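User: Sequence in, structure out. Go.
Assistant: Echoing your sequence, followed by the structure tokens.
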Amino acid sequence: MKAAVIGLGFGDEGKGLVTNYLCSNTNPLVIRYSGGQQAGHTVVKDGVRHIFSNFGSGTLSGAATYWSKFCTVDPIGLVNELQSLLDKGVHPLLFIDKACPITTPLDVKHNQTLIRDIKNGTCGVGVGVTMEREANHYSLLIGDIAHYNVFMMKIKQIEKYYKIHGKIDLMRFLDCILKIKFNPHIKFVDKSPNSFNTIYEGSQGLLLDPDIGFFPHVTRSNVGTKNIITKKNYSHLDLYLVTRAYQTRHGIGPMTNINIPHNILADENETNTDHKYQGAFRRTLLDMDLLLYGMEKDPHIKYIKKRTLVITCLDHIVNEYRYTHKGQIVFCNNELEFVDQIRSLLGFDSVLVSRSPESSKIERWI
């Protein structure tokens, strides 16, 4: 099996839930192919609840994770999350591509104080500035930890790059580097391991992709199919495109339907609510035009035949079966009509639904 889980919106669609659902197959491997430690994917399984940022969301189901070269690595966050999983009785296996860029405390500090990022929206964990630094040739990769003197020289150069030499304590960071280097749960590789059923897990939604979304309120990482499909062979891929039953967005980035009154229920167990750096968590009616636009702008989605729509959080729109299409509010009489109209407009034959992001249960609708 080879499958991909991609969000259709601005993130927070339920990608972790779907990824875990697909990991019920034998010998699964979750491949993170975009973003990095800014993801916050909540999974609940057998009474264990975990928010995944540095491991794939199939970990509770026994899936190994491959962290591809398109993802940044946060050593401090990785060590903290590994300990959290171990404390819950979970023993993960993480393969990290040696070409993954490392996020340092220097990157995080710069990210959290950079007016440009704060204005445009940021998680504040250094993913975007790490990618920007790499593009400017001040590179620090996870494979560099095998060469101590090289690693330390690169750290010094990054201090100069940010003009904060000696102003940030790096002891915790360096200690975590050592813990990662010699940890039995972490293996460094040159490419993705073979002999697994692979599930690609997206980090954010299509409408935050830099080639699709609304600049400058986008991520720096391609979150659609661009990093997944390198050759135009679509027959092998099962694509799961995920949306909530309503539209969500963090912060001040553009969002349609925001002035339409609604009765969408707030989730008391919501993982990612109002955020110090991202801003307020907003909810409104689902906009079919945005979803259709994102699917059309992605370079490969239109050519993939094996596509399944996933609609999550259906329980949050009780007596609120409305969406917008071509600028008009469309009213539905019930849940059945609501789901079927969305399925038809987006061009899907197969639909899965979930009634809460806290639930591990996914229902096959069609």
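User: And one key feature?
Assistant: The chain has a mean pLDDT of 91.
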